[in-house]
Amino acid sequence: MKRSKDFIKRKIGPQYVIVAVGAATKRFNGMISVNNTGSFIWDQLEQDITLDELVSAMTNTYEIDAATAKAHATEFIETLMGVGAVGE
What we know:
- The protein is of the alpha+beta class.
- The protein has helices at 36-44, 51-61, 66-82; strands spanning 2-3, 7-12, 15-20, 31-34, 86-87.
- Helix 2 (51-61) crosses helix 3.
- The chain is globular and about 40 Å long.
């Protein structure tokens, strides 16, 4: 999976948000507020990455077990896919 070029991450004060740009704003004109972990996941999705590779990156960076990392990553990625910010 990989993030769409039609979405960007921006830092607004202490908060990160993911927003659509260009033509994608016709499909999604809101923003997704993300914490540091969400920002980390977004950054990992710059390159084509599998869920297992993402989970490994999360467990290497954060003090989190693989099952918890997978559950959180899956939920976040499903949200991103729902708005077209991530594709297979």
